[in-house]
Amino acid sequence: MKQLILLILIFFGNNLYSQALFDVIEPNYIKTVILQPSKSDSYVPIMRLGESFILSFDDLEADQKYYYYKIQHFDFNWQPSGLSEREYIKGYDGDRIRSDENSFNTLQFYTHYSISFPNRSTQLLLSGNYMISILNENEEVVFTRRLVLYESLVDVGVSVHRSREIAAIDTKQNVQFVINHPNMLINNPKIEIKTVLMQNNNWQTAIYNLVPQFYRGSQLLYKYLDVTNFWAGNEFLYFDSKAVRFSNVYIRRVDSGPELYHTILYTNDERIDKPYGISPDINGNFVVRNVDGLGDSNIEADYTWVFFSLNTLEDLRGKRVFVNGNYNNWRNDTMNELFYNEETGLYEAQILIKQGFYNYQFVTLDNAGNFSNHDIDGSFYQTENDYTILVYYRKIGDRYDSVIGIGEANSRNILN
Prior knowledge:
By secondary structure, the chain is mainly beta. It folds into 3 domains: 2-150, Immunoglobulin-like; 155-232 and 383-413, Immunoglobulin-like; 237-372, Immunoglobulin-like (Sandwich). Helix content is 8%, strand content 43%. Strands 19, 20, 21, 22, 23, 24, 25, 26, 27, 28 and 29 form an 11-stranded mixed β-sheet that branches. A 5-stranded mixed β-sheet has the order 2-11-10-4-6, with no helix packed on it. Strands 12, 13, 16, 17 and 18 form a 5-stranded antiparallel β-sheet that branches. A hairpin with an 8-residue loop joins strand 30 and strand 31. The N and C termini lie far apart (61 Å).
């Protein structure tokens, strides 16, 4: 009986811990969290097992805190996998972050923290889902980030099409893919294989756990006509604040505020009723950069108050409006919310953002929590989007989900 109670406590304790990680609200003094491969400019936290990567962030309180990291292995459903630390880590699952630098020649003081993996304390041994938690000296979780490590054991072919649904043919994109596993025996694909399909590496809109529709030799075919439809959205908006003392791309003007510079963007008009227009973007991503420094944007790029404004005639009653992108981990919270200003007739927000090139979009959430990236800017099948397929594998009898392959495609080559 005691063993049963202990197992129940462990089960619910793990699930409560997992839920707590996802419920963490990042404090407003933590900014510019980047998880990226060491040898790439990509800010996408999906990497090959064994590849080195870096986690970095800024603390605007700039008081030389002690921060610690903790890494935990998760299953396909982002619940703790139940593996012991020794099974997926060589070394320790956590340590203090020892690399920190103070900002140089900036109006906004901050401390830039970074940690590289693998390091002397921690080497990850298994592919799969990981959660990296950053803790303060009181062992409280400050923020978390998802990390996916994969192995190339199968090949994934991906194609993007216009939706086959007549009602959505002009507004949605359909993704189909094939998993080729000539050198891998998969006995029961419907049970052993799970997939995640993402648009622009945004977990909020990911499609989970599709099962293969057809089998052809060593191929698993996913040819869904409706389940794998995504709202195509519109091309991302962007601005470039690399030079803080004068206006740049889509920046109306830069003012000298009482403490920090104010970057005032041109007012964005709704695009839902306008025709699609080609506008190259980086699909919601961003790049920190500063042209006025000596070459290290990590500590020389300043923070400015960026003023967003939106002019829309759409009926948004019962909906909240947010500005998001990879720069804020696609979050929709009060720090990124636009509020209606009756005097100007615009939705407005001011957000503290580090100098650089940024993609962003306007999205809505209704009272039921339904997300939309097309209420304001519309959705057009021509929109250029990145799509990523993650293939998870758990052989019957195994205790964890590994990631055995990744597939990528871009709708620039959309098939009609």
